[in-house]
Design a protein that fits this description.
binds magnesium ion, 8-stranded mixed sheet, 8 strands, alpha/beta, binds adenosine-5'-diphosphate, about 40% helix
């Protein structure tokens, strides 16, 4: 798409899927590609076991936002007196680290009692996803916790699109189906599957035939020795993959359609 035609509204996308499928890898790839397209990128690690920053090449320790107890109490209130809509707009500027033109924010564990829990840390971190207001040309890419249990209404309301990563592995497809069912229930309309670590056409056929009908496959990535070996250091090399460009373009188009409607 020519630069001038590109919709420059903000874009918030979250990445879900079973553990180990490649969520963090995809988050890092998308973050780099969006930054290269001129977006101001905020990469949010919402996995309680965070690895997005080192994957992007930032190796210094980062204190997760969930540990900023004073800030959380100040914004979200104490137990029993929870503010449901805490102010969060200044948080990325104050707490994100910057590396390679990408701002990285590490949330840490959103824990305690599942989706019904109204503890302040939950309220605060969910609000962060929901109320971060994007300026044109900003992109937020959220690397979610594995599985489905944490996927609450608030997370869904916070994002424009959800990418669900699957492998040619029935367990990852089962998880994807559960994520899709939940996403539908909470009103998320743009939910797309991304196939990862494919070895040949048979793998792609298997994935296509196993996905639920309402979970379109928007991209597939082959198994890559280069990416696999990146696990030796935990840092993703600068690989250029047309599929990542394609995903970003499809998201831009899908969101611009909604704007016109
Ligand atoms: N396309 C791929 N080809 C080969 N290995 C991959 C590919 N994508 C991811 N990996 C490897 O799979 C492992 C899990 O990836 P990761 O992104 O950490 O998954 P998740 O965040 O879903 O747990 C890592 O060792 C990563 O290097
Ligand atoms: Mg991960």
């Amino acid at each position: 798409m020519p630069e001038a035609d590109r919709p420059r509204r903000g874009l918030k996308v979250a990445i879900a899927g079973k553990g180990g499928v490649g969520k963090t890898t995809l988050a890092a790839l998308l973050a780099r590609t969006a930054a290269a397209r001129g977006y101001r990128v905020l990469a949010v690690d919402a996995d309680p076991n965070p690895t997005l920053a080192p994957t992007l090449g930032y190796t210094a320790p980062i204190r997760p936002l969930a540990e900023e107890e004073d800030l959380i109490y100040q914004r979200a209130g104490k137990e029993g007196l929870i503010k449901l809509n805490p102010t969060v707009d200044d948080i990325p500027d104050r707490f994100a680290v910057e590396h390679g033109g990408i701002r990285i924010l590490v949330l840490g564990g959103i824990r305690g009692g599942g989706s019904g829990c109204a503890c302040p840390a939950n309220s605060f971190l969910r609000a962060l996803l929901r109320h971060l207001v994007l300026r044109p040309g900003e992109t937020v890419i959220v690397d979610l916790e594995a599985g489905v249990e944490h996927l609450g209404r608030a997370t869904a309301q916070g994002v424009d699109a959800l990418l669900v990563v699957v492998e040619p592995d029935v367990r990852t497809l089962e998880t994807a189906a559960r994520i899709q069912a939940l996403a539908r229930e909470i009103g998320l309309t743009r939910v797309y599957a991304v196939g990862n670590k494919l070895e040949g056409k048979l793998d792609e056929d298997f994935i296509r035939s196993s996905l639920p009908n309402d979970l379109p496959l928007i991209a597939t990535f082959p198994f890559s020795q280069e990416i696999r070996r990146a696990a030796w250091t935990g840092r993703l090399p600068e690989v250029s993959l047309p599929q990542v460009e394609e995903i970003l373009t499809q998201l831009e188009v899908s969101l611009s359609r909604q704007e016109i409607r």
